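Recap quiz, item 2
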Amino acid sequence: MLRYLNAGESHGKGLMAVLEGVPAGLPLTAEMINGDLARRQGGYGRGGRMRIEKDQIEFYCGVRKGKTLGNPLGLMIRNRDWDNWQDVMAAEPGPPSVERVVTRPRPGHADLVGAMKYGHRDIRNVLEKASARETAIRVAIGAVAKTLLAEFDVRVVSYTIRIGSVVAPRVDDYVEAFERAEHSQVRCADAVASEKMIEHIRSAKHKGDSLGGVFEVVVTNPPIGLGSYAQWDRRLSARLAMAAMSIQAMKGVEIGMGFESAQRFGSEVHDDIYPSEIQPGFERRTNNAGGLEGGITNGQPVILRVAMKPIATLYQPKNSVDIQTKEPFEATVERSDVCTVPAAGVVGEAVIAYEMANAMLEKFSGDCVDEMKRNFAAYQEYVKNF
Amino acid sequence: MLRYLNAGESHGKGLMAVLEGVPAGLPLTAEMINGDLARRQGGYGRGGRMRIEKDQIEFYCGVRKGKTLGNPLGLMIRNRDWDNWQDVMAAEPGPPSVERVVTRPRPGHADLVGAMKYGHRDIRNVLEKASARETAIRVAIGAVAKTLLAEFDVRVVSYTIRIGSVVAPRVDDYVEAFERAEHSQVRCADAVASEKMIEHIRSAKHKGDSLGGVFEVVVTNPPIGLGSYAQWDRRLSARLAMAAMSIQAMKGVEIGMGFESAQRFGSEVHDDIYPSEIQPGFERRTNNAGGLEGGITNGQPVILRVAMKPIATLYQPKNSVDIQTKEPFEATVERSDVCTVPAAGVVGEAVIAYEMANAMLEKFSGDCVDEMKRNFAAYQEYVKNF
Amino acid sequence: MLRYLNAGESHGKGLMAVLEGVPAGLPLTAEMINGDLARRQGGYGRGGRMRIEKDQIEFYCGVRKGKTLGNPLGLMIRNRDWDNWQDVMAAEPGPPSVERVVTRPRPGHADLVGAMKYGHRDIRNVLEKASARETAIRVAIGAVAKTLLAEFDVRVVSYTIRIGSVVAPRVDDYVEAFERAEHSQVRCADAVASEKMIEHIRSAKHKGDSLGGVFEVVVTNPPIGLGSYAQWDRRLSARLAMAAMSIQAMKGVEIGMGFESAQRFGSEVHDDIYPSEIQPGFERRTNNAGGLEGGITNGQPVILRVAMKPIATLYQPKNSVDIQTKEPFEATVERSDVCTVPAAGVVGEAVIAYEMANAMLEKFSGDCVDEMKRNFAAYQEYVKNF
Amino acid sequence: MLRYLNAGESHGKGLMAVLEGVPAGLPLTAEMINGDLARRQGGYGRGGRMRIEKDQIEFYCGVRKGKTLGNPLGLMIRNRDWDNWQDVMAAEPGPPSVERVVTRPRPGHADLVGAMKYGHRDIRNVLEKASARETAIRVAIGAVAKTLLAEFDVRVVSYTIRIGSVVAPRVDDYVEAFERAEHSQVRCADAVASEKMIEHIRSAKHKGDSLGGVFEVVVTNPPIGLGSYAQWDRRLSARLAMAAMSIQAMKGVEIGMGFESAQRFGSEVHDDIYPSEIQPGFERRTNNAGGLEGGITNGQPVILRVAMKPIATLYQPKNSVDIQTKEPFEATVERSDVCTVPAAGVVGEAVIAYEMANAMLEKFSGDCVDEMKRNFAAYQEYVKNF
């Protein structure tokens, strides 16, 4: 079973995580992870900070000579701008760095509730952690999970399907769509829609406004039988929904036909089962279920769509109240992204990959990759002959 | 912290659960729970079985003289039809009750994947547990949670906002809407929409088809500060999404403005903060966030909408394949509900109430209700003066 | 992974538990469990209540036709004396059954601290749950675990090695010792020591006093590689110690040479490794480690010794203070056992079996017993060729 | 609730941990932690490596201007000898550093079982993690926990009571004993016994042998009511035992009178309850229970004794078998400590402090220290008037 805890303030020394339960013998290099870190930092609509960051993973421990040890992994992403923040964010006792004290909560952020919850009078103590900066380390964790999944030919891909009012056409071939999306500045598989999305973002930026959107995450080639209906918290559908909604700024998630299925007749929704034409066993010719029946993978691609609200920080002011003076003010801009849906898709891949890898380990176990593969192969053989 | 495990097959002796962590001294009677059990069984569109069931809670342990003991609660709901099933479902070794062996998986159910996962050749072993019958015991657990929440004037309500193609108008006053919905056969707050929904269900039934829909769950009067951004799995938004998606047949969940917020500009989405006019402190005049910022309650009502797919069992046949003969067939009807969205809302209340009660206990702790209230009151005083 | 929650007051309707994670297809009958329940109730030195109880397991759910379903198991042990307690312990609201209100805490029990913690003025609310009566349901859970372990030829046995000042000679052959102990009234493998123990108990009873003792639990034939040093809470040694110390009245636990190893030189303690003479691989000729190195099983028998304090309820009075009147008094007798070490050994087997079964599932996984066995067999083959 | 995961190989870049759940506003400086890190490294009987290490904590995140933020803490202890190991332990892919490959398992270590479990052919992959080097980061975590406990006047102290055959006299005043022990090279409170212990170690070293021993950990001034009998895994006695036994090389643990209570009559063991003479309420004049009744603190000091086996690495050879050649050999020395019981006591304090802090948070909750103190104070007032 995988577990992790992450830590780190946005402008602190960096982000870190301990990831426990990765089997021994998994080939793992920084390149594998840095690719996803770079993908998270890209996308049309990002503001200035992304250029500073250039995230790089450091394996602090748990990997040796390019392979995991079965020990917990120590993952770190250093803050390349730390020099400019080391006084403000110093761990050592000292007076507050007055010019950086924040007393003005931004609507749409955790600022006000975080300060109340934790008893902070300097809202910086909240925003440094609640910020989406944290997703960088989650992308790193997800990249490890993807590497493990790849050993079983399972892939997790994503692409943007909506930004604001612009919707991309429906995708048929997920991997192909993903590959096209990787060449789009907004991570959208459709060239025309990409152009419109970029234009939409440009226009929002001009108005000092921001945009959200929807991305789709797809798990291709999952084995049959991950997750369980045996207890509510083992349903993979529930776990995937939790993972998706744990990403900053996500406000909705759906699986397969999702909300649309609520509008349809049952006869239009449920996927028929047929004898397989190309191999022993069963097949489905539609995938309205999004790969999950009874909280369990059915071997079809697992499909989620996740809705992101617009970035909460706007040039265009919002009303708020200073927690010190209790005076109203118009909320300031801390950062200047206009739209981060392209990045959010990469984060979405990461959190879903983590859950999938965990579900694989629950089903196939294994202290080293060879053991896991051995168990997996025997099960696949069994399934084929079911 | 609350924990529970539940158990029980649909046609077994009954359902049961152990619920751990309820503080001592909570007034609790069977009536409080039976009300919700009855609500779950109601609604236009249910088939025959509901009439048999008439669920009643039994406190096996953990409650004495009408109050909780701080000990784990043992909850049971007996199967009133057990006499007719005791041979088929007997725990004792014996030959299978041949006439009840199921080898024909129904599309849209866990039947096929469950059999493969667990190695069952009799699909009854799957359907007995994966069935939504299990939600009865979850409603009981949720009713206990609601009783605890009520001590803090927190309520959890729900109502139907869509069945198939029929949508109800938007609700303004949640509690009033709930109360109206309680008098609707489809648990919809709007009388006109209710009528249309009933007609829609009647028509679907006539065609041998089924319908899904969407319900809204609202938590009124939550304290500020439940949940946390400090670690991904402590975000209340994520936990609530997991809870909602752990219900059988749910395919989507959204919080506050949800998927719609992905279509809007940021300036239209984020809720301004104002000085409170009626008390010291802060207020918001909109609630697009659905009561959650940064994964933490902000004191506004918590609002979720949950999409349910149509019932998977249809009179109108679906294609499937017998797992024994490997022959195709047209899928049979095991039960005859047409639409269970009204019931699903009650289940939605239950799972959300459970998560809210848990979040309350995490924040306010307390081995007995008095201690929890003492901690709560002192915190509310602190918040007022923040 | 196994999980369970149990519930039940001593004089309530009964005890119950939900046990989650048992693989499907495990043969399981009430007889297998009732044997251990009877063993727990036996032993020289028990008072009157044991004769009433005659515990019998009921499978409420999770078992069908003599096999587990992969669903959670619902286990129940009814209180055969419930008729006499149904008013006192009624769940329904009502006045306290005055004659049964307890305000006098017994030294050595949870009575006083439990009342303070939970805010009870009637100590009965504490003693009904804190009592060792709860161990009956844990024995049932352990018996399920033993049944699973037996599929892999792993056994968990116990025997008494000390009662008060009487010590049994050291055991060489664990299974043989166990079988002899099963014929001893004090569950001691040595006939002479058994006699002395019985005499010691008889003498203590005569004085109105009570006795504790030490039992040994041994897991025979465990596979190599259960548990892990990779994170503190995965060390099997730690988990087994927790399990042992979670039993009511246990005050010490040791593994292998235990406390004695603290007195010896390293050269006398560590077990040499030799090439195996009878099979490919390695062997040890001593087992001072008690089968665990680095928190991991090494294939040798796992050996624990657990110390039980004397029964806290004595005919011979102890000083205490009434929580209502605040007056001192001499503590009363609620029950009349003199020594329950023989029973405690059976409970010890149960809790250790549970942890071992869980460790097996972590290593070998498997949704059904066949899958678990397949993974196990392949691993054993690998180990043989290491 | 506290959670942590730690990571790090002995000769890697360093050790790290993420510690989650520490309330905001706790004053915390590196000095507070470095003191315990130094204590762990001290003691007569240590070999050469300790002089290299000179552990220093680094707060990577979670602490700002000398106070915790409510965010997860990132803790790091760098390996000061990393320069000499960076090739051998490099994360990057590359050929094994042949001269450092270990194929010879040491008896008494995890070497052989770890290699088998994880599929390693280089035992270095095992020993780097299973080593007691890991306890340094646990000491750091424990020091944070102690700092939190200190806010409530709860202290955790330890001292050595046995090394090999030398036993110290019984302690009456725990804190005084602790303070004396802090000036002893073997952390023993008694000057005469200290001398004998040192001589015993010197003699063992001369023979190329090693020694273990026993230390006592005491929690002074715990509040009444931590832990619970309500579910087996909530018993504080069980959790403390798990914590103690999770330390490398520990083979036994006992609470209060421990194993000795198994030898005594009940009338000699259970602690009488008296009306308090100095304050309202109750008092006990003995503490054979070691501060825990029914798995719950009773307000008396919590007392554990923990047995450590001798260091497994000896100059004096042990028999073993090379995993590559399958040839027998005499086991080599990797490090040269003779006795680390003095250090183990410091580790014991740490793991017990962690569990106590966790139990405090479960009972008193609080997102910031002020909230926790407020809840605590109100409870203490309630207890006084019980």
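Chain B touches chain C through 55 residues (CB under 8 Å).
The mean pLDDT of chain B is 94.
End of item.
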